[in-house]
């Protein structure tokens, strides 16, 4: 049975976004060791860096040249940084982090030390909005990766899945401490997973009719946003827990992504 390409794009967006729901369930009902979360962060960072540098930026440059690529790349990073700064003021600075950082930020929100209400649940909602901020550019990348030949970038899906898993873990744990029910938490993250699938679908359908320069700039925007996200949220958590092993684990993630991309050629 042959499925249309747009449906396949949406499906892979759902798969990558499902890590948020899986992580949320694990974070709510179990206690996952911080070292394991940190290792996933570091490995996923390496995979993402490889994907955006070897695939996304190269593809953007080939389609739109240096100007469109550079403007999109810096613009994506700037837009992400601005939105991330706003969310940080509402208690989502450490949304991909766990343990002490999550607890300290939640206590700051409750004490009114951040510009938020007095409820820890607002912190949890900010974490969820932050997941959308991180997930939408990543999911669009999946759709854009299918524009060239109709085949999904397996490396991109794996990388995004690995970056989403710890986010669901830490955010759901925060919502649990704020008193939210498991139904609320799981439905919320299921909704974000669906939005990830829609973003991937739109990444393919919306931009398939645009010029090469527009597609190139959009690809670079997504790449810039993802790299800013890695630097702001993933690497700090990985280093905070894994310390001296962070570099090695990140390199291994980069290598795995590099090998997979070459095997797919």
Layout of secondary structure:
Layout: H1 5-29, H2 34-88, H3 100-110, H4 120-145, H5 154-177, H6 182-205, H7 212-242, H8 246-263
Structural notes for this entry:
It contains 8 helices and no strands. It has one domain. 81% of the residues lie in helices and 0% in strands. The protein is globular, with a radius of gyration of 18 Å. The chain is mainly alpha-helical.
Provide keyphrases for this structure.
265 residues; mainly alpha; globular; transmembrane
Number of domains: 1
Report Rg.
18 Å
How much of the sequence lies in strands comes to: under 5%
Q: Figure out the total of helices.
A: 8
Shape type: globular
Distance between the amino and carboxyl termini: 25 Å
Instruction: Please give the largest β-sheet.
Output: none
* Secondary structure: number of strands: 0
Topology as a string of helices (H) and strands (E): HHHHHHHH
Averaged pLDDT, please? 79
Which secondary-structure class do the elements indicate? mainly alpha
Uncertain spans: 114-120
**Percent range of helical residues:** over 70%
Subcellular location: Cell membrane
GO molecular function: zinc ion transmembrane transporter activity
Keywords: Cell membrane, Membrane, Transmembrane, Transmembrane helix, Zinc
Protein name: Zinc transporter, ZIP family
